[in-house]
Write a structure and sequence with these properties.
The complex is a heterodimer. By secondary structure, chain A is of the alpha/beta class. Chain A has helices spanning 52-63, 86-92, 95-99, 110-127, 139-156, 174-181, 199-205, 228-237, 345-383, 404-410, 414-423, 451-470, 472-476, 489-494; strands at residues 131-133, 164-168, 185-189, 210-216, 241-246, 265-268, 288-290, 303-305, 323-325, 387-388, 399-402, 430-431, 440-443. Chain A has 14 helices and 13 strands. Chain B has helices at 8-18, 48-61, 80-86, 89-92, 104-121, 133-148, 162-172, 193-197, 221-230, 318-321, 334-371, 396-404, 435-449; strands spanning 66-67, 125-126, 153-157, 178-182, 206-211, 234-239, 260-264, 280-284, 296-301, 307-312, 377-379, 387-391, 408-409, 412-413, 424-428. The chains are: A alpha/beta, B alpha/beta.
Amino acid sequence: MLIFERSHPGRRNAAQAPHYAAAVSGPSTVLRTGIPAALLREDQPLLPEASEMDVVRHYTSLSQKNFSIDTHFYPLGSCTMKYNPRACNTLAMLPNFLARHPLAPESTGQGLLACLHDLQEILKDVTGMAGVSLMPMAGAQGEFAGIAMMRAYHDARGDTARSEIIVPDAAHGTNPATAVMCGYTVKEIPTDANGDVNLDALRAAVGPQTAGLMLTNPSTLGVFERQIQAIQKIVHDAGGLLYYDGANLNAILGKVKPGDMGFDVIHMNLHKTFSTPHGGGGPGAGAVGVAERLLPFLPLPVVAKEPPSPQPSPGGRGSQNTYRYLTEADLPQSIGHLSAFTGNIGVLLRAYVYARMLGAEGMHRVAEFATLNANYLMAELHKAGFAVAFPQRRASHEFIISVKPIKDATGISAMDVAKRLLDKGYHPPTTYFPMLVPECLLIEPTETESKETLDGFVTALKEIRDEAYATPELVKGAPHTMPVRRLDDVKAARELDLAWHGRTTG
Amino acid sequence: MPFIPHTEHDIQAMLASIGATNIDALFDEIPAALRNGKLNTTGDGLNEMQVARLMRERAAQDAQPLNFIGAGAYEHHIPAAVWEIATRGEFYTAYTPYQAEASQGTLQVLYEYQTMMASLTGMDASNASLYDGASGLAEAILMAVRAHKSSRRVLLPATVSPFYRSVAQSIVKLQGIELIDIPFDIATGTADIKALQQHAGSNIAALVIPQPNFFGALEDVGALTDWAHAQGALAIALVNPLALALLKAPGNWGAKGADIAVGDGQPLGAPLSSGGPYFGFMCCKQALVRQMPGRIIGRTVDLDGKPGFTLTLQAREQHIRRAKATSNICSNQGLMATAATIHMALLGADGLRRAAAASHANTQALAVQAGGVQGVKRLFGGAHFHEIVLHLPKSSAAVLSGMAGQGVLGGHDLQPHYPQLGNAILVCATETKTPEDLQRYVAALRHALQ
């Protein structure tokens, strides 16, 4: 039932609604404002009339229809669904942080700015980059910032013939989409059978038209790109720049720095590696890091730490401030602002609390135990007879199995396995991505899961395989225990129903 | 080990299964020269008690002055239930609802959100959120250019927030889109219709129409929408969603209504939070749905014919369409949209209207009271929503600084954005302000002007 169907005309939440101010309340329902009638709304927007308890019950019961990290193992490949520590939420929501207006003087936000500055420094340290901007609001916006900086760099040098971004075929869809948003064309290069980039194809692809290469390392195939040094040389020799897609940074945190691999610009998904919640789709944060030569182009603002100056600066800026936001005046070549104010500050505070709780040792452990869990799960599934995509390779923090042998024998697909996992109490892995491996499951257990959880997951997959042979209809009809069975996606797209218009849902 | 459950026994058993001697061996495919980069500045880990103390000390450094700044982020009362529910682990720690059967909670909330936003804006459809209002405006401009097909020129009045104009420029310029400035009428603070007329007959993809505009002034949205349509351009409504509880919905502007409505959803349940997270919303007419960026939820039925919700029209998106996608957006601001849905459900149409009307009334009252201070004069006397512009007899930066010293944030300095206005500030008094707060404002202003 929709909230609108719980609505009762005339029901109000007096406790939450402000009183009408004397200046606008009138004897009738007509508001007396100074606003001309032609600009006023005549109709009533379709919002529910429900009590506070109606609303609380409705959304609490809806929440219970979700799988989440707090309720289920969620081994979604490429998404790093690790535990989101509660302290991060509590401390990011301290009242003074929540109440501060983004345009309030910097003197009223020194505590916040200290946190942001510290976080910039930590991210520089773990990535080996020369500078960091925390401003992009998601991974895809971080990618945009990164490629826009590449373009600004080439343009600033008068090197304007570079029109092409190279992307491996295993890349996330955001990579080619980002290149196009930045005004580039996309050239795709193939991956070798062992999971590494095809170097011959890369050599053939680069040239004076190459602006750069976007690379995820470890790749979406769950393996570390072993030829990274050769790749770096090929791209740089051609005059291009190297972009690091940080979606899989969790795999190498504290172990290898993208800066040491030769990357010029990177983005980090703080909602993956730094454990901020996914919130049912966002908000995330896509901080970017750059090598020395790209520093002038960082998106604004960046937080700077300066010794308090004895001389008050013009414009009334307090001389007591240790931290301040850098502006266009400081970074005239910046690619500019990407949000109205200062990005997803609340997410950044959560990442900061998490980073401080980990410390240097904890950073190493993230990669170590994410990798241990992935390799253990891969070994156990391999021993159990599942088709591992790259059995001769180490898994990074994730790996792929293919359901194709099972599908060939029983007709049960990766989709069927995924849906049946729901009945067994597990959120399925990523399915059908990357597209290079047929009927694939991309599995990322993360470091926060215990051995017994992984063992339970192996047992569930073995049971489903048995069911595929013994009772395939059971698997094909799954899920059986969710609030709904499989949904008609074709109907959803053909007979668009994107908003309620007063029809009942039955 | 923080957030890692492994016992020594677990580790040994797992390594034995893998056939590795130690954890370090699992990294043996990484070239040795690149491995184990030392962390230099990160420092030792803190336990929860230590980090809590650190954060509380930092938060305590940040004062909570009495705030009269708006300029795109507005202080409103948020019912306690909103974030109590939105931070339930089932919403807070769920992923994007790709597995629909295990995500009906998030999906239904977002379908309800789309319904509420489409209704508030008077449009046919809403997406499930964008990052913020400014980047949302950039996406609306890109969408309008895609839909228009023959023009890459968009009219962007100077009455649109300078922050938004700056972001739009950062994003759309890389695709060769030209943003054309439309000056404002210095008497009314609204778009200069004569300046607009100079573009009549030229091939324009879209006109952006802010309501209220950055000065809080109300534009003649009907005339502007009709003008855009007469030019064959799309009308992009840039709106404050709370104001729409009171003001005419973009879908009803002019003869045919605006084509796209976009804005920042912050006034609907998002705390000020020093700038974010907020969320962008975008709504449009049915004919443009397939040009819309971002995730969209649809209602459908399951195998048994039972209603359910799922992500739909994914063929627009980057994970399917890659280089040909409508946008690169993937993560959105789902949790903020969830909070907004609960916020709107709790307040209802009447509660939102009260909040909007009380904000309007408080700002009107402040305009009268501040206008009584010697040398202070109100600019742009026409109809406003909940922000006004005051002209000061002294340096605006110095006056604001003086007020801040008294614990009052007196407004946003317009001098850097609009030097032609002189010592002008933008002031906002939402429903959170009491008559005593307004008196405190006036007293602080008077003192700062001495």
